[in-house]
Design goal:
Chain lengths: ~400, ~325
């Protein structure tokens, strides 16, 4: 697979970026205020819907000013300290490219989870106040109450949802460079489907046009379903926004659909799409829960004839529920839990080894050791470290290993 | 210097030191005297002395050779019946040391075996009955298949009485030179009821905080259950589902809890009159019902996070009904 077109055609300069004139002007004057040594505000909070060019504008302007972008994806960090460490380090590090100036980009700050990243917002505020380089943050929704402190220290710059004409312009430019002959009508359809999300539109265009010389309207019809097949986001959207059981079930006919993966994706994104109606959310989750019971029975009895019930529940059962909120565009995400699980493998290994020792010494299972014994040892260790160390010694667990348990 | 956890340090080594369970103790002592024991099934709630009785029985039966003659397995940790079969076979193949003609196999948490595995276990019990005796330990007799029950002498361990628990705690506190108040003992009884293991662990943890009184005891209790449990419930009740789910993931991944652990903790949180969730009593009852249904589905199903997410969504709906948050 060649380079994704969204990367390949990312604007190199502000003048390549479609529309967003207002945002460009504001961003320019802010950055210029830095070079005069007296910034208006130390940070910018750039906000707007997905695919309107937030990340692109930052890279473009950095290019124009010959600045190096140090990028931190905020949603990758789960604690304030981890975030602080990483940002502080990246900002401090000497540029690989000699004496170029720097620009810090904290992408997707609304990806910070309010609970686990408790303190993350304060950490960012602190970092920005100390920082000597311009910092830009991006978010879809800046009006979330927990961003109040961020808003106070930042210049807010809005980016508008792109209109269809803008998107068609960009798509046309790409087709020209790729040497693809295409009717404007095709591009209009792709643009309409993208609902103002340029990134989605470019991805669709690449899925259809890669390796072709000509795209006709008919090609689009045939290729659309295959294009979305590659894209779990589209499949999930089809299910969650379906109006009839048939629409929701249609995804099941896609060849090579990984239904277990789809199950995780639906479960991850359901609350975002249904957040406006608790009734719908509870009913849809109930359908997922019953689907899971079927999966459990299949696993135990190998009775695969039950599969169709499970699949119907997780698609039609989720889509057709009372009180379902009206369609609105929400950004879906990869199942966080799969991400977390792979991250936590090492932690789990340490935990299991500690639990095995306790289990053996105290004649219990690891599960009982985890709930009935370990919590008490933790309390003793934190309240009376001397006594805690003695117990660890008795168990034969090193202090370091014990402390690495979260 | 090392120091044992008190639950181990004060675990009775011989049957007559056991706290209560007098009838069981006297029958087990008779078995020891005759050097003839049947297959045994010890059933009863946690912390009532089942494992202690099995280990004490082993010590008295084999004397100094007890370690060579006893195999201790935990059904929850041994993956599948095959492992058990192999280990039992290897173990039973060699002759017992000393004057008892068979070895003792203690199989703890036997009720966590699937019924298939139990069927296989029943065969193993028959195959090795000449060279091995089994002592099965379980919380619920009903989760042990009948053919196994009928091959065993079943002993039901009762939850310990208040006086027994408090007396034991006082005994330990005195030996350890720990200051305890009446209110502290009462609080430990309140939260542990007849579960002596929990009572002793609470005593030891509270003593690390200072004098064991009601305050230190409840501080320990508050920290044993991760605060995320309560936080998750409150968030869900307020309709903040996504944040509640973040809490859930923290519990499952960072704390390494199983889905069943989580739903049990939720249940005791809901039903604990000491912990005010600030919801009407009828909502508490409804919540417990939802928890029960999800517990059931979790046993039947395949994916704990999905089941618990479904629980949280129902809680959020309930929160709306009672206008919480």
């Amino acid at each position: 697979m060649s380079l994704p077109w969204v990367e390949k055609y990312r604007p190199k300069s502000l003048k390549d970026l479609v529309n967003q004139e207002e945002a460009k002007k504001k961003l320019l004057s802010w950055l210029e205020s830095w070079s005069r040594g007296k910034p208006i505000k130390k940070a910018v909070l750039l906000y707007g819907p997905p695919g309107c060019g937030k990340t692109a504008i930052v890279h473009a302007i950095a290019n124009d000013f010959n600045l190096e972008v140090v990028e931190v994806n905020a949603s990758d960090f789960r604690t304030a300290t981890a975030l602080e460490r990483t940002i502080a380090r990246t900002i401090r590090e000497r540029s690989l490219f000699g004496k170029r100036g720097k620009l810090a980009l904290l992408d997707e700050v609304d990806g910070l989870s309010p609970l686990q990243d408790a303190g993350a917002i304060e950490a960012i505020v602190k970092i920005v106040e100390k920082s000597r380089i311009p910092t830009i943050m991006t978010a879809n929704d800046p009006w979330d109450p927990r961003f109040r402190d961020l808003r106070n220290i930042s210049l807010l710059i809005e980016m508008k949802k792109l209109n269809r004409r803008d998107i068609v312009t960009v798509l046309k430019r790409i087709c020209l460079k790729e040497g693809i002959k295409v009717d404007t009508e095709v591009l209009r359809i792709i643009a309409r489907r993208s609902r103002g999300d340029l990134r989605a539109a470019i991805n669709d265009l690449q899925a259809i046009g890669e390796g072709r010389r000509v795209i006709r309207v008919e090609d689009l019809d045939i290729l659309m379903p295959r294009a979305s097949q590659l894209n779990m986001f589209e499949i999930v959207r089809t299910v969650l926004t379906a109006k009839t059981p048939e629409q929701a079930k249609s995804v099941l006919t896609l060849p090579s659909l990984d239904y277990q993966m789809l199950f995780h994706w639906i479960s991850e994104n359901l609350p975002y799409q249904y957040s406006e109606s608790m009734e719908a959310l509870a009913a849809a989750y109930d359908a997922l829960s019953r689907a899971d019971v079927y999966f459990g029975r299949i696993k135990r009895t190998q009775n695969w004839s039950l599969l169709s019930y499970a699949l119907e529940l997780m698609t039609a059962g989720v889509a057709v529920v009372p009180g379902k909120p009206r369609f609105r565009f929400v950004k879906y995400s990869f199942p966080q839990r799969l991400k977390l699980l792979s991250k936590m493998k090492e932690t789990k290994k340490i935990r299991d080894s500690v639990l095995s020792i306790i289990a053996k010494k105290c004649h219990v299972s690891r599960a009982v050791a985890n709930t009935e014994i370990l919590p008490y040892i933790k309390i003793i260790y934190s309240e009376n470290p001397e006594q805690g160390r003695k117990i660890l010694k008795w168990l034969g667990i090193s202090e370091d290993r014990f402390r690495s348990l979260s | 210097m090392s120091e044992a956890l008190w639950v181990e340090k004060y675990r009775p080594k011989v049957l007559r030191e056991m706290v209560n369970q007098e009838e069981i103790v006297s029958r087990l002592e008779q078995f020891v005297k005759a050097k003839a024991i049947p297959h045994l099934l010890f059933a009863g709630p946690p912390g009532t002395g089942k494992t202690t009785a099995a280990l004490a029985l082993a010590r008295e039966l084999y004397g100094e050779h007890w370690r060579e003659n006893v195999l201790e397995l935990n059904a929850s940790d041994e993956r599948g019946i095959q492992t058990i079969r192999l280990r039992v076979k290897d173990y039973a193949r060699t002759m017992a040391l000393g004057d008892v003609p068979y070895k003792l196999i203690i199989l703890d948490e036997a009720d966590n075996m699937t019924s298939d595995a139990q069927q296989a276990l029943r065969r193993i019990m028959e195959l090795y009955s000449r060279t091995a005796r089994f002592c099965l330990i379980a919380n619920y007799v009903s989760k042990i298949i009948e053919p196994i029950q009928s091959r065993c002498a079943v002993f039901r361990f009762q939850p310990l009485e208040r006086e027994d628990v408090i007396e034991r705690l006082k005994f330990i506190a005195e030996k350890e030179g720990v200051k305890v108040t009446e209110s502290g003992l009462e609080a430990i009884w309140e939260i542990s009821k007849g579960d002596l293991r929990r009572a002793i662990n609470t005593l030891q943890a509270a003593s690390a905080l200072g004098t064991v009184d009601a305050k230190t005891v409840y501080r320990v209790v508050g920290r044993v259950t991760p605060e995320e449990i309560r936080e998750m419930l409150l968030l869900a009740l307020k309709g903040r589902f996504i944040e509640a789910r973040e809490c859930l993931r923290e519990l499952l991944i960072t704390y390494g809890l199983s889905g069943i652990d989580v739903i049990k903790m939720i249940h005791s949180e809901i039903m604990n009159p000491k912990i005010k969730l600030e919801i009407p009593d009828e909502a508490r009852v409804e919540l417990a019902d939802i928890a029960g249904e999800i517990n059931f589905r979790m046993v039947e199903g395949a994916d704990e996070e999905i089941q618990l997410s479904a629980f949280l969504a129902k809680v959020a709906l309930l929160g709306r009904k009672y206008r919480i948050g």
